[in-house]
């Protein structure tokens, strides 16, 4: 990560036993999963990392979470509707940087069509860029009209800006990614099998994000993999729609 945060305070502890149990399960899952093999970044140099974020602990946990679901799919005889499989063709990575998570997914599931990706990383890893399109825009704003309700996999490693509950719904820049990215995620995910993976730290107040996504958009959020990195906890939040997006929910 580009920055570290203080250890969580008392008000950042889970408010319910249920969420604490979900966090504990995510920690166990992170210990049990295979370590994902990082895509090659040999094409990048030090100057490139002045412009994009260098993969770190959060990136590793993110691709571990994706790999966990791909492994679960490969080991399963059936499809429970939430696993990652070759029929999931539409993928968006918001704020892709090096494109590491999407390239990892593309290597694991051949034929995937990525909307946001660093093409050089794909090419360096032997992934054809014929069906890859990189779009420079504000979050996924320019993609919503075309991709609403069509995205099978969405990946988001947001900036580490605290988003406590009193900031979700505010108009300040401090709430920019939470207040605007969350409804975009809800609009983009395909129902019923779309899945999003989002990185959070505890000072993002993920339990509040979970409640907001459920109440406003019918998106189920589960802490999926969780691991301590230096002085903070990183968690991959796994999001799946429980109903189609309703136009009346638009709040951007």
Automatic annotation (TrEMBL):
SUPFAM superfamilies: S-adenosyl-L-methionine-dependent methyltransferases. Its EC number is 2.1.1.-. One of its GO terms (biological process) is methylation. Keywords: Methyltransferase, S-adenosyl-L-methionine, Transferase. This is Methyltransferase. Belongs to the eukaryotic/archaeal PrmC-related family. GO terms for cellular component: eRF1 methyltransferase complex. The keyword Cytoplasm does not apply. The keyword Methyltransferase applies. It comes from the Eukaryota. GO terms for molecular function: nucleic acid binding; protein methyltransferase activity; S-adenosylmethionine-dependent methyltransferase activity.
């Amino acid at each position: 990560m580009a920055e570290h945060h203080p250890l969580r305070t008392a008000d950042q502890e889970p408010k319910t036993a249920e969420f604490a149990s979900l966090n504990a399960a995510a920690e166990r899952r992170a210990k049990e999963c295979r370590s994902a093999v990082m895509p090659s970044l040999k094409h990048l140099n030090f100057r490139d990392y002045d412009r994009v974020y260098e993969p770190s602990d959060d990136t590793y946990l993110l691709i571990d979470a994706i790999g966990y679901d791909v492994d679960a799919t490969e080991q399963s005889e059936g499809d429970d509707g939430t696993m990652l499989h070759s029929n999931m063709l539409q993928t968006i990575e918001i704020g892709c940087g090096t494109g590491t998570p999407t390239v990892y997914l593309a290597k694991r599931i051949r034929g995937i069509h990525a909307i946001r990706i660093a093409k050089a990383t794909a090419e360096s890893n032997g992934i054809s860029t014929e069906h890859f399109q990189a779009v420079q825009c504000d979050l996924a704003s320019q993609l919503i009209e075309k991709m609403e309700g069509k995205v099978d996999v969405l990946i988001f490693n947001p900036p580490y800006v605290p988003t406590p509950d009193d900031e979700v719904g505010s108009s300040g820049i401090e709430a920019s990614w939470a207040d605007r990215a969350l409804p975009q995620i809800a609009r983009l995910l395909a129902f019923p099998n779309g899945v999003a993976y989002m990185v959070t730290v505890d000072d993002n107040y993920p339990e509040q994000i979970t409640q907001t996504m459920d109440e406003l958009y019918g998106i189920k959020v589960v802490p999926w993999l969780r691991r301590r990195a230096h002085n903070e906890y990183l968690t991959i939040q796994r999001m799946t729609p429980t109903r189609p997006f309703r136009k009346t929910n638009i709040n951007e």
